Amino acid sequence: MKRSLVAFRPSHPSVLAALVITLVVTGSGCSTPGATERFYALSDGSSTSATTGTTPSTVATSNPGSVPFAGIVISAVTVPELVDRPQIVTRDNGNRVNVAEQQLWAEPVKNGIARVLAVRLEKALAAAGRPARVAAYPQASIASPELRITIDVQRFDAVPGGDAVIDVLWSVRRTSDNSVSTGRTVAARPVSTLAYDDVVRAWSQALEVLNKDIAAVVAKIDLPAPASR
Length: 229
Prior knowledge:
By secondary structure, the chain is α/β, with parallel strands linked by helices. It is built from three helices and eight strands, in the order αββββαββββα. It has a five-stranded mixed sheet, covered by helices on one side. The protein starts with 12 loop residues before the first helix and ends in an 11-residue tail after the last helix.
């Protein structure tokens, strides 16, 4: 909405008051009436939808009666400041950044990434015969984990109708001796349409690539089985 302002000096206070009221009323008309906010969450694989806002259920291991071999905590996730906001941020094919005021995350992006990786990693380790309990900060419920994982997201970009891309530096630290394994995962998944549902779904699929890379390293780490947990 373009506004043309003409400078003048009101001759009476009542004229100034009327002008202020007029500007307030006119400005309020610039908002979009009836706009609907939509909320999205990254998919942890517990459902087919990438936009579910439900809390994931506890993951069952391949042998429910066994004792998990380790406690693992995703202790920190950092994301670029550009995307660390309630609105979903996408790009066009150039340098333009689009901040969707009505398309919102149901949780902070870094919390969503931690949640997704915790659920997916626990599933992957169970499938590999290395059952573990995996928790994510800030809701970590494991007091003395054997492993701590940190996630440093360098890129979290998406072009509707193009690709969703993640670029992540990660590390896995064994707390018993502070030995560290590090890696980098770059993954891109196509965004089939211009819809935000598909954008979030593509990001979720890219995070599964990250999960597989981390799970492959964790599964090879030699950790003693605890007597009880």
